[in-house]
User: Fold this.
Amino acid sequence: MFSCDDKSDFNLYKSIDNEGWKANEKIFFEFDVKDTISPKNLFINIRNNNEYAYSNLYIITELIFPNKTKVVDTLQYEMADKTGQFLGVGFTEIKENKLFYKEKKAFPISGNYIFNVRHAMRKNGEVNPIEFLKGIQDVGFSIEN
Assistant:
């Protein structure tokens, strides 16, 4: 799915297999930047359902610039409140979470950028990542004015 409106410069979702988001599976988004002056807000968009068994989400992101410079971040987001209610928006079992990635970011150079994200979820006391993270239906990336 792809959409643009007055507010969005880029908005794309990618579906996750029904078996779950595989450990070390990177979800890729490519986008072109022409405007190197105006600051933008960058979001990671997550659609989850009731199969998601955790109150938070750990992810590792990578933003690759046209000159091949990379910025890697490890991020944690709350997905549910203290009572276990999911924080996202939605009237059905599917909740949509719009998570800030970068706020008021001006891209330093024009050209083709690549953004990727993978989950970094682990069970308590375990070193290896969860092999198939269930309950995440779609992962998206958006850039807004």
